Amino acid sequence: MATLTHPITARWPARHPEKLQLYSFPTPNGVKVSAALEEMGIDYEAHLVTLADADVKSPEFLALNPNNKIPAIIDPNGPDGEQIELFESGAILIYLAEKTGKFLSKDPKTRYETIQWLMFQMGGVGPMFGQLGFFYKFAGAAMEDPTARDRYINEAKRILNVLEQRLEGRDWIMGDYSIADMAIAPWINVLEFYGAKEVVGYHDLKNVPAYVERFYARPAVAKANNIPPRPE
């Protein structure tokens, strides 16, 4: 039986050290990985890591992710049976897909195109929508100068249009459901939390809203949307 050895267990003890350990919070980046774990049928144990500095900047969490962001995982049953620790949600999705042989095509062309769209989310959708949230809903919304807010509103519109065109005639980004969808859809859904759907023209789109609805209708995703459970 695999054993688990890592400083993080001092703060978040593993009740089932033989299982994959997930350290996360159900933000879009967190939901990416919990959705993958549920969709792939991986046996795992989830630990709630809040976004407070007391958690993400604790020495125990920094020992796993020096970038102090969720999610992160430890798999005691990694490559060649050795323990592996990973952070960065995109890297985790690729690892889980390769571990299980699910949701990432073995055909080289399709595989790299899927990773391409995953990187589109990592480098575009996530960072740009995150800045939109900051300047539209959170502290940046108090700024009188609208330059930053307008920049990210317009960039969100542009990105949504890229996705709208990509989804024309497709149910999923690659046609078949993949880790690209697990990455992209939760970040589109966050527009509701930001209260930004109207300002970015979300309701003028046809394909994107239907896509997000399909994604959250999946039983595994519906479950993953609150893993680990949000605090009461």
Automatic annotation (TrEMBL):
Domain GST N-terminal residue range list: 17-104
InterPro entries recorded: Glutathione-S-Trfase_C-like (IPR010987), Glutathione-S-Trfase_C_sf (IPR036282), Glutathione_S-Trfase (IPR040079), Glutathione_S-Trfase_N (IPR004045), GST_C (IPR004046), Thioredoxin-like_sf (IPR036249)
Domain spans labelled GST C-terminal: 107-232
Pfam family membership, one: GST_C
Record's keyword terms, sorted: Transferase
Gene Ontology molecular functions: transferase activity
PROSITE patterns: GST_CTER, GST_NTER
Family assignment from sequence similarity: Belongs to the GST superfamily.
Protein known as: Glutathione S-transferase
Species annotation: Celeribacter ethanolicus
Origin organism lineage: Bacteria, Pseudomonadati, Pseudomonadota, Alphaproteobacteria, Rhodobacterales
